[in-house]
């Protein structure tokens, strides 16, 4: 007989480990245990099932060749036994037994293993606020919750939703409610920006503006303090600032590892509750492996361990566990944090660390932002894709990259390419010379990502001085804060005209890019000029020209008005 | 006064060098010389100008902020003098002078330089066949030719075009003629496949089939032996096999460096006629730099020098020349050969070496091909993107990657990511662990590129035995050639049924994937089974299962019928 392998947890990492090891050791006896009756589904597809893009939950459990991944499928196709509705109660490491209980019948049995794999995943956090247990308050923990939500919507029971948490899942769910169902949806985010830590403030702001434009109400810096109901059913969400009516509340405030079983078995677990594994994904008991949302994995950039609850990583890790179970010593290098998200007509993506995260980690980090075209500017479908590179000014290593653009794969392409460079420990010079594929329908001759790396190079070399969008916006809100600042607007005078009119010639100088060399003597020597154009490119050039003419008291608005316009400001002249 | 820099050649690398050095050394005196009156245009945009996607040739000369890059623009915006209609006649390296002639007036003058930059580009090859000089025979050498072609079309003078050369430019032009103008267009390619050396046969075949479906006639392995005309105007193209009527002929059969000026000045030029430069893009005279289509640059993968005539590289090289002119010792690592091309409703792209090229270079190369979804298979817009990875079986280094898919950026994303790995000298393991961004609207949890790297890993480890698409197709054309081969079709029986009917139960076995473990005993032991499914994934699994049951005489059809269907075959049952 072959090796006995028992896997606890039947979604993503678990089935992947099972199938991989069966392919490498066809005579292994592999058993998957799961307390649910639905297994091996694409959990990341839940928002698209709720929205209706995916009509049937079965599609989330189907293979690409339209077979449903149920118990019979695993047995017939993979030779793997899947025991559903079966809860693992405890692990006897000495005897190598897992005690399980059939949830329906209550029958218990001990299943022997040579190797055990723990892929118990994560559970959603529930805020400790009054009303969190009311009927109609959901976390997005499994497919059953998704089915229940969609049923309520289909029955017409839901006209107002409050989503607590402005991370990826909260936003994807908000889109699902709003886009197809026309439900009045509000996102509450406790932090000062949505997608905190994932992207920096500028990118979060562009996304937030697009969400608002698309009909989602977003409140940042605002926590839910209570959920109120009537007859046990949710009615409203209370914050320190307002009360929001709601027939349904989604709580999407992060997850934590399900590691109780591992902990009870005496396996090493991190202070945060994540199962500790080595590079081969072995726990502190070498016969027991773990993978997916329940483990602590090393971030390649910071070298620190943390939970990394992403379906893409769970699948990678599952394969690595399968290899090691079969005696192939594959190692997991760690993760960097690549993600992408659809939000209505836009996409947002990032890889590596945000500037905030990089600074918090102690890197000598800096960031540059551009707002250039995704394809040749003469190609009809071209669009602006703001990109940001975060890098270490000492080592020149790329630490992170963020992108925002239309709903296409344009941002994906740049983020995947940057992820490859970051994963290989590459520098901004590597990113500058990265030979991206070019033709006018797909890119610019010097790709926007290369160009952004070049801007990073200029910044690193001291050839560029920036004003951040945040500082600029603060100034626009309160001119008194920086009395000696003036805008130097390089755009065509018909674009700059309304700004000069609104903000006066004292605060807003209009000198078109092409005329600077002839007219620089008109410019003030006693003021700090904030140089503005659409993409930031002309501004950077003109900074050098002005410096050359001795007018060195100037700063470039990186990413220019292409960025500001997407962030949305109240002060834009009509 | 600043350094005197003279640049010969006003498209791509030349203007880029000029602008970069002016940004680094604002007091440099920079002069661009060009024999043309149009400079700094996006030559890669010519097919889109001819097609009408780009309405005015000026758009190819405009900046993203809608200013035309003419002499006045360079002077006012960049502080660079552009002398157009001016031909460089000779270089006096001792006196550091360039002798130039005003083409209109015939006046000559000597322009002194401290540094010279040669960016003279390449000229299209003209086949030495009768009639190549007839009116109506065009090469795509500059914007004037494009304007002339479009004028003829607009006047209604063109109803049939023959494009000689099935490389990227030939195909892009063929699309331009066919798509908007409805011109009857034929491509003649001398080699046995279109895009020779750029992609392998399978990918060329998928593209060719799509071209044919889109109305372009393609003949491969067929050379133009003569062009015939009447009253000096082209009428037809003659091949050894047929005569093709034509009002217009495009000759797109490669380019060679314009290096006569450099050669006459005694600069080192390769046997192929490319200007030899070092990593800082200095010629054999350290005061003279060269960049763009006229130079020989090192291929990072092969270590060999060659011409690399691509607009994307010219721009990168121009920047590096600018750096070095200003005393920043930036080095050019070399090129790998990334490209992408739109062809009607599809895109095709590659980076690095094709399998053919890798084998010809002496690598112990192997290739795997997959045909998986670009996004989650349950997401409505998902499509199959065949991907191929070429790798070195000894070092596991990735040598190349090819992709074919719908007209989106899906293929771009995978090729750019692979280009990053190849440029960094990465292995198939790096590609397997490359953390690509995931969400169902953009990718599969394990991206198609990661999955292809995993297949490469399986092949490298001896866990996979292939039949190539070519061998398979040969067999389908002639069953007698392999009398002991049978197909083992794993698809649903309703898909396989018509094949069994057409090819008989002796040659075509239908056993659905899910039933193999129950029915393997029905399978023949004395035959070589070619295992077939849609994507190749199920086949690979079943190979392992059959091997385990002792039925080891079997081969997987990599990429499966997803690939075959796109390649187009006459034998598909109705």
UniProtKB/TrEMBL annotation, chains A, B:
The keyword Ion transport does not apply. Residues 515-572 form the Rhodanese domain. One of its GO terms (molecular function) is oxidoreductase activity. Gene3D superfamilies: FAD/NAD(P)-binding domain (3.50.50.60), Rhodanese-like domain (3.40.250.10). Pfam families: Pyr_redox_2, Pyr_redox_dim. Keywords: FAD, Flavoprotein, Oxidoreductase, Redox-active center. InterPro entries: FAD-bd_OxRdtase (IPR050260), FAD/NAD-bd_sf (IPR036188), FAD/NAD-binding_dom (IPR023753), FAD/NAD-linked_Rdtase_dimer_sf (IPR016156), Pyr_nucl-diS_OxRdtase_dimer (IPR004099), Rhodanese-like_dom (IPR001763), Rhodanese-like_dom_sf (IPR036873). It comes from the Bacteria. The keyword Oxidoreductase applies. PROSITE patterns: RHODANESE_3 (PS50206). Belongs to the class-III pyridine nucleotide-disulfide oxidoreductase family. PANTHER family: NAD(P)H SULFUR OXIDOREDUCTASE (COA-DEPENDENT), PYRIDINE NUCLEOTIDE-DISULFIDE OXIDOREDUCTASE DOMAIN-CONTAINING. This is FAD-dependent oxidoreductase. It comes from Thiovibrio frasassiensis.
